[in-house]
Amino acid sequence: MLTVSVHYTLGELKVKFALLCMQFSIAIMTSCALYNTRTHLCRHLAHKYLSRTYSTQPSLNEVVIVSAVRTPMGSFRGSLSTVPATKLGSIAIKGAIENAGIPVEEVKEVYMGNVLQAGEGQAPTRQALLGAGESCITQINKHNNMHLLFRNLLCNFSKKSVCDLCYLPHVGLPLCTPATTINKVCASGMKSIMMAAQSLMCGHQDVMVAGGMESMSQVPYVMAREAPPYGGVKIEDLIVKDGLTDVYNKFHMGSCAENTAKNSGISREEQDAFAINSYSRSKAAWESGVLAKEVVPVSIPQKGKPDIVVKEDEEYRKVDFSKVPKLKAVFQKENGTVTAANASTLNDGAAALVLMTTDAAKRLNITPLAKIVAFADAAVAPIDFPIAPAFAVPKVLKAAGVKKEDIAMWEINEAFSVVVLANIKMLDIDPNKVNINGGAVSLGHPIGMSGARIVGHMVHNLKSGQYGLAGICNGGGGASAVLIQKY
């Protein structure tokens, strides 16, 4: 006799009865029949119960940007060539935290994009955050090993503004702050923002710094470890090998740009005109003070002389418009369209943003500058990397429920002039809303930094309530895109 508790619902009784029937039938059913019965029952239970269990999506934290700064961008082997990428990153991180007006110990973790890491030493982002200010860590050589031991313990177990042993102030980030370096080629800086946003959205952290850094001037040459049995040694430039070469087709990114120009029907004249416009917009933006508000200066110590202070981008002044149409194509001799003038340049620089949850902003009494609405990645054939943003952007718009007509400001990274022209064409967007203050062609393209720079630029230049969408392509056939809304 089956005794049933009065607490069972009718649905639960049906399930129990079905289970009893299945147990009873095991002895008399064939294995095939038993399998079919079990499959049917599992499907029934999954539909009736599992779907109900996961019918509501967990709520995510809203993520806001409270600070966004960058260093000036130096030309290749130019004004910032003596400053390592990690030091540029330190300056950007320190500037972002200071502009946010929060205690350094509030920063729970740091992500920085960095592509060309050879020769930089272990954990570049860790170096950058520990160098972000004059703290006890910069004084370690003045103290004995015992101080270092206790300093680590104190930093991990008590987040104080002054060291308990030497009473030096913590202006840099505490030793207990984790760091991660992100490499998604040119999208590295933007991807660091996206990954930080994910961590904040799910509640893993509540305050983070994200950005990107690169010193292309300091990238070394390399040679194979094996000694050649005969003949000379081949030396390779890691800027080209790790940063600018399509590993699948064995040619330069510029050849991919030529392919896009051909497929999209974009002429040399269109690319040259775009480049000239980029330089003109950058010049106007600097002269009007638009770009100055996002830049923190870089001081370069000199022996026996005052420090050299770099506080302005270097590249946009280095142009002679009369020579632009006369330059030879670099990557394709016959009917080539991509030149040194209408492509981006090699540069040095860093950018950093402070992101936090809205709850953290309220707790710290911080007024946000913008909120992160949505973000997405996309991938295409490696040779088609220039048009990859056109596949990431629709994903972002769909996720946010926003139309392209709602976007007040577009930032599409100018890896090559043809990149922006092709994406404008594919997305059918207003060119007057794209890169209104210039871009990488005229300002520079430190590849690990650029994705963070264009997001930060939108933060400063959108008006309240406006949407801004940034997209950046990356080698290997990828792209990332981020949608923000100004507070």
Automatic annotation (TrEMBL):
Cellular localization per UniProt: Mitochondrion
UniProt entry tagged with the keyword Membrane: no
Major localization listed first in the record, in broad terms: mitochondrion
EC category: transferase
EC identifiers of the protein: 2.3.1.9
GO biological process: fatty acid beta-oxidation
CDD domains: thiolase
Signal peptide limits: none
Pathway assigned in UniProt: Lipid metabolism; fatty acid beta-oxidation
Thiolase C-terminal domain: residues covered: 367-486
Subunit structure: Homotetramer.
Protein family membership: Belongs to the thiolase-like superfamily. Thiolase family.
Protein name as it appears in the record: acetyl-CoA C-acetyltransferase
